[in-house]
Amino acid sequence: MGCRDMIIRPERVEDQTDINHLHEEAFGPGRFAKTAYRLREGVEPVAALSLVALSQIAKDGARLVGSIRFAKISVGGKKGALLLGPLAVFVDYNGHRCGLRLMEQGLELARQQGFGLVVLVGDLAYYQKVGFLQVPAGQFDMPGPIDQSRMLALELQPGTLADYKGVIRGNTL
Ligand SMILES: CC(C)(COP(=O)(O)OP(=O)(O)OC[C@H]1O[C@@H](n2cnc3c(N)ncnc32)[C@H](O)[C@@H]1OP(=O)(O)O)[C@@H](O)C(=O)NCCC(=O)NCCS
Questions:
Q1: Is 13 in the pocket of ligand 1 (CB under 6 A)?
Q2: Does 26 contact ligand 1 (Cβ within 6 A)?
Q3: Cβ(154)–Cβ(110) under 8 Å?
Q4: Which of 23, 75, 115, 151 has its Cα between 20 and 30 A from that of 169?
Q5: How high is the pLDDT of residue 149?
Q6: Helix, strand, coil content of the chain in percent (nearest 5)
Q7: Nearest CA to ligand 1 atom 16
Q8: What does pTM read for this prediction?
Q9: How far is CA 16 from CA 1, 29, 48, in A?
Q10: Do residues 140 and 166 lie in contact, with contact meaning Cβ atoms separated by under 8 Å?
Q11: Which residue's C-alpha comes closest to atom 24 of ligand 1?
Q12: Which phi and psi angles does 169 have, rounded to 5°?
């Protein structure tokens, strides 16, 4: 099966149980201790940017196979940026471009909605496929331990990265 058998649509309330299972499988019980998770505590994902991927050929009907969410953040007090994540795809559906398609669609929506910058902590080798670059060491800091080489950003509007410097915080407003 490939991505042509999948559809991507906005997340619905009834997807929550499947998404919880997905996060358990993908990130394990240690996920709540991670800096990115702690940063998102008390910060609702942006509903208009939460997407799910469904496989239409599962034998028990359409099955949720992937999910992406984004959270509003500020960097050094400046708003207008997003933290990408969690992004997860069930392991038996890995390698079919599901994660890349979720990101491409989510990033395009974010661009249309006027966000300037998207930040994440992850593998450059993967995220550079949709345009993420390493953030210069020291430009961003997080309220918790991070590996600076995994701090990545994507400009949704040209030149925005230079506008953001300092501590990343979840934007609860
Ligand atoms: C990371 C994840 C979302 C990828 O989803 P996926 O749908 O399997 O990935 P895609 O099919 O879109 O990606 C395909 C390409 O990315 C590559 N890729 C996937 N994960 C990678 C990684 N961690 N590092 C480098 N390349 C990676 C694949 O090798 C493939 O490359 P190719 O096109 O050259 O063959 C999925 O493996 C997952 O849920 N992992 C556990 C949770 C996680 O780590 N989430 C990300 C952090 S928030």
A1: no
A2: yes
A3: no
A4: 23
A5: 92
A6: 35, 30, 30
A7: 126
A8: 0.93
A9: 25, 17, 15
A10: yes
A11: 126
A12: -135, 145
Q: Specify the residue for token string 């991670």.
A: 34
If one residue of 70, 87, 103, 146 were mutated to test the ligand 1 pocket, choosing by the most ligand atoms within 8 A of its CB, it would be 87
Q: Is the CB of 125 under 6 A from ligand 1?
A: yes
Query: CA 89 from chain center: how many Å?
Result: 12
State residue 30 phi and psi, 5-degree precision: -75, -5
Domain count, the chain: 1
**Phi, psi of 166, deg, nearest 5:** 125, -155
CA distances from 58 to 17, 54, 136 (A): 18, 9, 43
- The CATH number given to whatever domain includes residue 21 is 3.40.630.30
Q: How far apart are CA 101 and CA 65, in angstroms?
A: 12
Other Cβ atoms closer than 10 A to 56: 12
- The strand pair at 166-170 and 63-75 is best described as antiparallel
The string of DSSP codes covering 100-131 is: HHHHHHHHHHHHHTT--EEEEES-HHHHGGGT
Domain ranges, residue 11:
3-170
CA of 77 to the centre of ligand 1 (A): 32
